[in-house]
Amino acid sequence: MRILTDCPRICTFALILLSRPVHAQPTQPIYLQYDGFVHNTDGSYTLSFGYFNMNNVDVTVPPGDANGFAPSPADRNQPVKFVKGRHRFACSMVMDRTFDGKDGEIRRQDEHDDGKSARPAL
Question: How many domains does the chain have?
């Protein structure tokens, strides 16, 4: 008989546990995508980048070691929320006229960095 009186409490507890949101974990890489450049009239270059988030969820990666550019500054107002799917021209930066694409890599390292980098061909 006690089982019958405890049943509503057990069912309520089970419903509370089951009703909590389940969050998917990002397990796939986020790939950097070099979209192109524009040679500006003052001799500088505007470089554009996108990304391809292979996860089925949006991933947030704050600026820092896991989301930065080299050469410095690493934080160039790049996206911190990577929406699932492919997104072109998500970040642009201006490099001065001395930039030749050879003095360092322009690299964004994401949470699941595969070690690849984008080196623009100018």
Answer: 1
